[in-house]
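Input chain follows. Return structure tokens only.
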Amino acid sequence: MSTLNADPAEIQKFSELAHRWWDPSSEFRPLHEINPLRLEWINQRIPLAGKNVIDVGCGGGILAESMAKKSASVTGIDLSEKALKVADLHSLESGVQVRYKLIAAEEMAEAEAGQFDVVTCMEMLEHVPDPASIIRACTKLVKPGGHVFFSTLNRNPKSYLFAIIGAEYLLQMLPKGTHDYAKFITPAELSQDIRNAGLELKTMKGLGYNPFTKMYSLNNDTSVNYMVACVRPA
């Protein structure tokens, strides 16, 4: 178990909340609210229809299902058995087909290397002991010429204030302890890991939240939440 790139406490934390994944008023409300923005951003960069897609760290399947609705063939992988059971159940209820697997990204990369047109890995890198290993696995999973998308949290005083003090304590949008500030990743660090893995970073986008309108928007401010789009050179 020591070689598995996962934090048992993190898996446990999300497993305990698994039954609430698809409740848009629950702790996962922010994920439901940002999902349409992320989905459209990905789909604009690479139209998902007919593509073979894998969502690494899919949790309860919010992004995975929405990509399947765009007529992509979607696989979702995670290490939380409870979250995957919820994802499977919701897939049956909604009639949206997604293949879910309980498997580590690195293991999946060995089993199905170069099989995917698109790899997404959202809100996961800041929850694992070795983010660079996940990035390498995503690179291995994608076909040459394919697209890889990551999202994570920047590490600076503003992100601590917004993502932890604001979101977890003041606005109570997320359960206390959802994030560990020490695991946040700066754009420079992520860019370096992306280059080291052999990917080309194409663009970076910020994700903002207005507490007054309670609306999320895509912008160029990467100081808190941000997403990156990469391509594996053909």
